[in-house]
Amino acid sequence: MAKKEKKAGNKDDKRQPPALSEKPIEKTAKQPPKAKINSAAERRKNRIDGIIKTVYPSVLGAAAGFACYYIGDALAPYPWHFVMLSIILVTFLIQKNTYNFLNIDANAFKTKDWFYVEFMVVDLWLVTWTLLLN
Questions:
Q1: Rounded to two decimals, what is the model's pTM?
Q2: Tens digits of residue pLDDT in 35-82
Q3: CA 71, CA 53: separation in Å to the nearest integer?
Q4: Can you state the percent helix, strand and coil of the chain, rounding each to 5?
Q5: Which sequence spans correspond to the domains of the chain?
């Protein structure tokens, strides 16, 4: 006997989508667990260190802005980018040597930390100097 051909639209012809695996596919990469700080004293110290790491470069930047304003005649022959690089170098050396007096371990700073504090210096230097010049 000849086999009957299946007609289009027959229930057997409809294909089911392939079954999904039991585990859902994760679309985001797993983040490493953050180091937990257990004691309240450590959290308080980290918060105070963060405030110091923000305020100290800001004060240095504002002081550099005032210094550039008051010695502006001596800076006239130099281009502004030379002055900015000089400010970055001087404040970097100042911070590297004085953070230990503020009970902050400057040797533990990573590149990201140094970019953060130097950005604060340059930002406040430019804002202060610009406001004083106007």
A1: 0.68
A2: 665 788 888 988 999 999 999 999 999 999 999 999 988 988 989 899
A3: 27
A4: 65, 0, 35
A5: 55-133
